[in-house]
Amino acid sequence: MCCNGRPFQGTKPHPDVVGNEKIRIVPVSEMKGLAVGPKILQYIAKVVLQSVQLFYVLLKMDTPSYVLMQNPPGLPGIAVTWLVCSVRGSRFIIDWHNYGYTIMALAHGQRHPVVRIAKWYERFFGRFSSHNLCVTRAMKEDLRSNWNIKATTLYDKPPSIFKEASLDSQHSLFLKMAKDHSPFKPRARPDSNSAERTAFTELHPETGAVTLTPGRPALLLSSTSWTEDEDFSILLKALEDYEQFISNGAALPSLVCVITGKGPQKEHYRNLIDQMHFQHVQICTPWLEAEDYPILLGSADLGVCLHKSSSGLDLPMKVVDMFGCCLPVCAIHFPCLHELVKHGENGLIFKDSQELAEQLKTLLADFPSTQSQLHSFRRHLRESGQQRWHESWTQTVLPLLAADHR
Predict the structure, then answer these.
(1) Residue 7 pLDDT more than 60?
(2) What is the residue-averaged pLDDT of the chain?
(3) Dist. CA 221–CA 204, nearest whole Å
(4) Are strands 196-197 and 201-203 parallel, antiparallel or unpaired?
(5) In the predicted model, what is the mean pLDDT of residues 89-109?
(6) Which residues pair with 221 in a beta bridge?
(7) What are the phi and psi torsion angles at 70 (to 5°)?
(8) What percentage of the chain has pLDDT greater than the value 90?
(9) pLDDT digits (tens, 9 = 90+) for 217-237
(10) Which among 93, 62, 60, 138 has a CA at the least distance from the CA of 311?
């Protein structure tokens, strides 16, 4: 099976992927297109160059039985992949994670000619696939009723690398992050023993045991692609309110907020963060290696998700990974989020910064008590017996493929 995930050069996959002898990575160069001329011509040039390159890459590979392509990005991937599959006799599977045209509409508006063309393109060529997978029941119904495409719901599930991190793993990662990010450096302590410390953990030289630091801050984590469908001003305003709660006398822990990821709006928000002045909240925006990200998720106390689906039909993968690490989540509301986040069971759903701030106040009021609502959410995630990715694939997708060979 060939997976057209289009790994760009310079992006390092997880070691489990790199070291798997059954996986061969064929990188695709990131095409910039023309650098001069009207925007529409630049975009057309980029699409043409990507089409030629993708066509060449798929043709020179050994003929696969199946080609699985995640959409988005589907332009130009869907048409090119369908054409190659038709020529080579391969079966073509589209994994619908969202609609590409709705993401484009965030920047250009629904009525923009490019957005309209992209919508027609996805709808027209999407019907030529052999099988279709989608990530929610709501998207399955939308594909059926509006585009006449029959799909099978395959919920995203976390791979086994996403799990609660051991104290030893946490300590090693925190030491590594403390080299570049001050929120992870140890706070001043009145005693002078020689324990190796971070802001959250300490290793005792006599016993070699790692423990959580008394009075440690709470670790809040959010991950993002820094795109238009995530408004991080909501989180920043909630953190300002949280700071004010403490200034007004609320018994709350200090907070370290880590926002991971790369994307076009990162510098915009970093400039906003640099202008904020907190006494009890620290914010950092690191880019983590693939092997470090699951450990950080498995070390955090609470996750925040600001993904607001451009179509209202997909679910945030970042929350799936958080749940794999038994990390409770506060997530912003959109129509089908209830298929993943169960309000009051594994997390909370909010609609604005004020509601998020109140949720942070409530969940962290008894931190780090094991009798808190936050700990109750974590316990529910531990006991829920979450299905993992390979189990979901075996249960849902393999029967589809087996039916092709009967």
Answers:
(1) no
(2) 90
(3) 27
(4) antiparallel
(5) 93
(6) 258, 303
(7) -85, 135
(8) 68
(9) 999 999 988 887 789 999 999
(10) 138
Whether the upstream peptide bond of residue 368 has omega within 30° of 0, thus cis, is yes
Which residues are CB-contacts of 74 (< 8 A; sequence separation ≥ 6)? 94, 100, 121, 122, 125, 126
- Other Cβ atoms less than 10 A from the Cβ of 61: the count is 14
Q: Which residue has the higher pLDDT, 30 or 336?
A: 336
**CA 3 to CA 71: how far, in whole Å?**
12
Judged against a pLDDT cut of 50, whether residue 30 lies above it is answered with yes
Contact 350, 304 (CB under 8 A): no
Please give the radius of gyration of the chain, using alpha carbons only, rounded to the nearest integer.
23
With bands split at pLDDT 50, 70 and 90, how would you rate the model's confidence at 192? low
Kindly give the residue spans of alpha helices, DSSP state H, lying in 109-219.
113-126, 137-147, 167-178
Question: What's the DSSP call for residue 386?
Answer: P
Residue 311: phi, psi to the nearest 5? Answer: -100, -15
Q: Which amino acid is at 127?
A: R
Q: How far apart are CA 324 and CA 383, in angstroms?
A: 12
Could you tell me how far CA 65 lies from the centroid of its own chain? 29
Q: Pick the residue with more confidence: 364 or 390?
A: 364
100-108 and 113-126 helices cross at what angle (nearest 10)? 180
**Ramachandran class of 226: left when φ > 0, alpha when ψ lies in -120 to 50, beta otherwise:** left
pTM for the model: 0.86
**Better-predicted residue by pLDDT, 20 or 170:** 170
Structure confidence at residue 229 (pLDDT): 78
Per-residue model confidence (pLDDT) at position 46: 84
Q: What is each CA distance from 273 to 43, 56, 257, 270, 355, in whole angstroms?
A: 32, 44, 11, 5, 21
d(CA 392, CA 399): 11
What one-character-per-residue DSSP string does 280-345 give? Answer: SEEEE-----TTTHHHHHTT-SEEEE-B--SSS----HHHHHHHHTT--EEEE--TTGGGT--BTT
Residues 340-381: tens digit of each pLDDT: 999 999 999 999 999 999 999 999 999 999 889 999 999 999
User: Is residue 342 classed exposed, middle or buried when 0-12, 13-18 and 19+ CB atoms within 10 A define those classes?
Assistant: middle
Cα angle, residue 205 at apex, residues 199 and 208 outer, rounded to 5° = 90
